[in-house]
Amino acid sequence: MVSDNLLGFASKNYNFNRSTLYFISESTNQIYMFNKDNKGYILRFSQRPAEHIHQIRAEMDWLYYLSRNGINVSLPLKAKNGELAVSTQDNGENWVITSFEMVSGTFWDKNDPKRWNEKIFFNWGKVMGDMHRLTKDYIPANKDDTRGIFNGRFSLMDSVKLCPSVNKITEELISEMMALPKDRDSYGLIHNDMHPWNFYIDGEKINVFDFDDSLYGWFALDIGIALYHGLWWGRKNDAGNDFTNAIVENFLKGYLSSNQLSDFWLTKTPMFMKFRQICKFSWFYNPENEDEHQKERIYNIENDILFTGCGLKSLYGIIENAKN
Q1: What is the pLDDT of residues 176-218, one digit of tens each?
Q2: Concatenated DSSP letters for 104-140?
C-alpha cells in the first residue's frame, strides 16, 4: 500500500473525499477505489521513472479515442489541472497516478452459463476486432506521448534461459515473430493483455479495462494472448464440460465480424499462443524444481502442446471453422 502522503496528493488532484477510498489490490501497480458524485472510480499508483508519464498519457489518450468511438472501456478521469496523469516524488521514488471510471458488470465464471457461453466468447472477440479496426486510424494527440513497441522480450522472464530446450525454442520463436511484416491491416496499438480478468460482463456486453500493458504489436498477437488465457483458465468447468472449440471458434467469429484479418495472420495465431505459453512458463519456472507438473510443461512446449489434449495442430482446424 502507498504512503499517506501519496493518498493525500491523489485526493487533492482528483478532488475526492478520502473517507470513500479503499485499497483493492497490489501487483504491478497499487490499485484503490473511491467514490465521487455517486460514481465509483479506480485510482492507480504506478512507481515509474518521471519520463514514463509520456507512456501513461499515451495509454489514457488511446482510451479516450476508443471511448469516443463507441468501445466500452474504463474512461480516464482528468486531474484538476486537466492532465490525464499526474506525477510526484515520495520517499525518493517517482509515482505516476491515474484514475478511471468503474465499468459496469461482473467477472466471468466458467461455472455460470450466463457468464461463460458462446455469445460471451463472440462479443469478447468482437470488441477486440472493433479496437483493432479503430486503431488503424488512431493518431496520438501528442507526438511526445507514445506507447512501447513489442520486442519479443515483453512479459518474458530471464528464467527461461535456465531451461536449455525451452530457451532454444524461445529464441527461434522470437526470431520468427520479429521477422513478420508490419502494416496497417495487421499491426498497431493493441491491448496486449485482454484476458477474462481484464473485462467485465454486463448482460452480453463486454466492458474492457486495464490497458497498462498496451503497446504496438500485431493484431494476431493480441488475439493469441486472449485465447491462450481463455483456454488456460476457462476451457473446462468443474462439471467437466470442454469449451475449447467454442472459445476459439466463437471468439474468432466475433473478431472477424468487426475486423478482417487475412488467412496468413489467422494461421499465425497459434504461434502467438505458444509464445504466451512460454511466457507463462518463464513466470513460474524453477530449475531446482523437478516435480511432474514442471516436467509436463517442458514436454508440452517441446512437443507443440498448449494444454493436455490441446495441441497446436488442432487449433488450425478450429480456425478454419471460424472463417466459414
Answers
A1: 999 999 999 999 999 999 999 999 999 989 999 999 999 999 9
A2: PSB---TT-TTTSSHHHHHHHHHHHHHHHHHHTT---
